[in-house]
Amino acid sequence: MSLPPIKLSKLQLTRVPVSVSWSNGSPEPEAYLLLNNTRFPGSGVVGSEALHPDKDGAISVPVGFEYRAIAQVECDRGQMIGNAYTPEVTFSTEQTDLPINQLQFTLPGEPCRVWHPK
C-alpha cells in the first residue's frame, strides 16, 4: 500500500487571558484549565489536554473555534485527592479582529492545600 504524503497546516494561535480565584477572591495559581473545542466534542483543544496559564496569565489556543472551559484544582484531602471545579465558561476565537476579554473562573468554597505528587 502506498499513501500520498500528509500535508499539515499550521494553526494560527491566539493568547487568551485567564484568571482563576476562589470564592473569597484569593487567586489560585495551581489551577489548570480543561478545554473542549465545540466542533470536536470528544477531544480537547487539539487532543485531550489540560493547560496551565503562563506567567502572564494567558493560554494559547487555535484561532477560529468556540471552546467550553472549566478550571480545576486538585486538593490534598489526606488519604485522597479532592477536585474543585469552576462552572463552565464558553468563549470564541472565531473573530480574530476582536480582542478576547479575560476569562474569569471562580472555584467554589475556601482555598485548599493543593495536592502535589511526592
What's the layout of helices and strands?
Elements: E1 13-22, E2 32-37, E3 50-51, E4 58-62, E5 66-76, E6 81-85, E7 89-92, E8 103-107
Q: Can you give me a brief rundown of this structure?
A:
The chain contains no helices and eight strands.
Key words describing this protein structure:
118 residues; 8 strands; 41% strand; mainly beta; globular; 5-stranded antiparallel sheet
What does this structure look like?
- With 118 residues, the chain is mainly beta.
- It is built from no helices and eight strands.
- A hairpin with a 4-residue loop joins strand 5 and strand 6.
- The radius of gyration is 17 Å and the shape is globular.
- The mean pLDDT is 87.
Q: Rg, please?
A: 17 Å
Spatial shape: globular
H/E topology pattern: EEEEEEEE
Structural class: mainly beta
How big a fraction of the residues is strand?
A: 35-45%
- Report the total helices: 0
Largest sheet: 5 strands, antiparallel
Our measurement of the CA-to-CA distance between the termini, rounded to an integer number of angstroms, reads 48 Å
Q: In percent, how helical is the residue content?
A: under 10%
- How confident overall, as mean pLDDT? 87
Low-confidence stretches: none
Number of strands: 8
